[in-house]
Amino acid sequence: MSPIETSVGTAPLRRDPMPRPPLSLFHAPGWLGTSLAARLDSAVALNAALRRTRRTLIGERRRLLAARHSLLAEAHRELGRSDRRQRN
User: Fold this and answer.
1) 25 burial class (0-12, 13-18, 19+ CB within 10 angstroms)?
2) Which residues lie within the region annotated Disordered (predicted)?
3) Number of domains in the chain
4) What's the pLDDT tens digit per position in 61-81?
5) Were 39 and a residue from 3, 25, 28, 44 both cysteine, which residue would form a disulfide, CB within 3.0 to 4.6 Å?
6) Could you tell me if residue 17 is inside a domain?
7) Has residue 88 been placed in a domain?
8) SS (H, E, C) the chain
9) 46 in a domain, yes or no?
C-alpha cells in the first residue's frame, strides 16, 4: 500500500478489509469504491442479522409475558379470586 502524506511525515494507508456498513450503503465515503454487489451482500447480511435479533427479542418477550401470566394466575388462585363460587 502506498503511504499518505501527513503533517509529521508519512503514514501507511490502512483500510479495513470489511468496514462496517453505514446507514446508507450508497452514500458513505468509505464505500464509494465498493461494488454494488458487495454493497448488496452487506445489506443482505445486515438484514439477516437484524431479523435474527428481532426474532430473539420477540421470543424473549413472549417468554416473559407467559411467566407474568402464570405468576398472576397463581396469585389470583392464592387469593381466591379465580374461583367466583367461593365468594357466593
Assistant:
1) middle
2) 1-21
3) 1
4) 999 999 999 999 999 888 886
5) 25
6) no
7) yes
8) CCEEEECCEEEECCCCCCCCCCCCCCCCHHHCCCCHHHHHHHHHHHHHHHHHHHHHHHHHHHHHHHHHHHHHHHHHHHHCCCCHHHCC
9) yes
Q: In whole angstroms, what is the distance from residue 15 CA to residue 17 CA?
A: 6
Residue-wise pLDDT for 2-46, tens only, equals 444 445 555 555 555 556 655 555 555 566 667 878 878 888 888
Q: For residue 35, count other CB atoms closer than 10 A to its CB.
A: 9
Q: Name the one residue in this structure whose C-alpha cell is 411467566.
A: 67
Range of the domain at 78: 34-88
In a domain, 9, yes or no: no
